[in-house]
Specification:
This protein is mainly beta. It has strands at 2-7, 10-13, 18-26, 33-39, 46-52, 58-60, 68-73, 78-83, 92-99, 108-109, 113-118. It starts with a strand and ends with a strand.
């Protein structure tokens, strides 16, 4: 089991930036995949970005459009989501998640961190 703790959320104006962090602990394997998801009020949770621990291979949702960057620090067991040029529609609770590389579904989830973008 992997434990995940997010931080870095907050209130920012349109066009601003935030960097979210996700500290992972527990049974972490180099083949695991780390992901960021978000859920806005009244909407379903959606995928934002993912990265592999070992090779740093990344994957992004289409709406990211070069504004967000996912990265990881293996020494710190921490994954980051750098969010630039934020828009009001980016307002959501952002969740960190982990899954084994051999599985499709994310099995471990953090508690979430609120991101609010004011217009």
């Amino acid at each position: 089991q992997v434990q995940l703790v997010e931080s870095g959320g907050g209130l920012v104006q349109t066009g601003g930036s935030l960097r979210l962090s996700c500290a992972a602990s527990g049974r972490i394997f180099s083949s695991d995949v780390m992901g960021w998801f978000r859920q806005a009020p009244g909407k379903e949770r959606e995928f934002v970005a993912a990265i592999t621990w070992n090779y740093g291979i990344t994957n992004y949702a289409g709406f990211v459009k070069g504004r967000f960057t996912i990265s990881r620090d293996n020494a710190k067991n921490t994954v980051y989501l750098q969010m630039n040029r934020l828009k009001p529609e980016d307002t959501a609770v952002y969740y960190c998640a982990a899954r084994p590389g051999s599985q499709r579904d994310f099995a471990s989830w953090g508690q979430g961190t609120q991101v609010t973008v004011s217009s």
